[in-house]
Predict the structure.
Amino acid sequence: MTKRITRRILVLVVLAAAGVGTALAVGGPILKVSHNSRLGAIVVDAKGMTLYHLTSERGKVACTGTCASFWPPVLWAGKGKPALGAGLNAAKLGTIKRPNGTLQVTYNKFPLYRYTQDKKAGQTNGEGVDDSPGTWYAVSTAGAIVKGASGPSGASGASGATTTEDNTTTTDSTTTGRGY
């Protein structure tokens, strides 16, 4: 009888260890929600960095080369769909193939990018930056572009507090211009 109990405990321990390994391999959500005082509820990456969409992109990727060095795409190399934080709609999550063959994360079919001039979580310096052939905007949790107030050069010039999903608060800094 003790051998039977020992085997069952061993099986449970092995199954539990396998489950923990899977959870660690998957990691946390790739996209989360941030509440910005100026823009409302927006989509951010796992580190709380604001994610943007170029208005000229719908259904295909146009930001490559130099553009992608200033606006790094959110890439997905995992299996299946990435994990989402609370407040985001899994039906809006997807990927699109970039010209180089990598997969870029989309939300409501909007390819997502970070902005290199956002140096810390909560900053929205890319909001309203005009880059021919389109303009960059944050993406709302509803899956729409957010057209917040823009500064004189087309970049986010306003400053506001942001509270992220994990209840940390940061303050936006002011940046103008394209950054390249």
